[in-house]
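User: Show me a protein chain along with its predicted structure.
Assistant: Here is one chain, sequence first, then C-alpha cells.
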Amino acid sequence: MTSTVLHIDSSARSENSVTRGLSAEITARLNADHVIRRDLATPLPLLDEAWIGANFTPADQRTDDQKALLAQSDALIAELKQADTIVIGTPIYNFSVPSTLKAWIDLVARVGVTFSYTDNGPIGLLEGKRAIIAVASGGTQAGSDIDFATTYLRHVLGFIGITEVELVAADQLSMDADGSMARAKSAIAALAA
C-alpha cells in the first residue's frame, strides 16, 4: 500500500525549533512512500472579503479572478486529500497556534469541499485520515485548561473529518526541558508506522 504524509511546520523559527525537529522525526518514523512538505514560515494569504465572495460563489459561476483567489486554497486542500497522514508541527504561542497555522486552517476549512452542513449538523468530508500533532510549549501544559492550541487543532481536524488525532507533546520546556523532550521522544517511539 502506498502511503503519503503531509508534513506541515508552523514554527517561526527555522533553526533550533523543537517542533520542526519532532515533526521531522515523526515523518521519518512513518517511512512514507511520498512526503508533501508545507512550511508555513512563508505566510499564506489571509481571508478577505473578495476571497469569501469567491468561496461562496457556485464553482460553475466563478470568474477567472475568483478562481485565482481560491487557487492557493484549492492547492492546500488537494495536499490534504492526497495525504493518508498529516503531521503538524506547532509551537504554542500565547496559548494557541501560530497565526500562520490559523491562516492554513482558514484556507482548508471550506463548506462543500472539506465539510458540509446537514440536517443533523456539520460533517467532515476528509474521513479515513490520521493526524499527528507535534507540539512544544514553554509553560503551557498540553491538554490543560489554558491549552487552546491542541484542543483547537483536535476540534478543527475533527470538523473536517480527521478524527484519528495523536499528540506528541514537548510541553512545559521552561520547567523541565530534559524530561519533556524524553517524554516526546518516547511518544514518537511508540507511534505505529
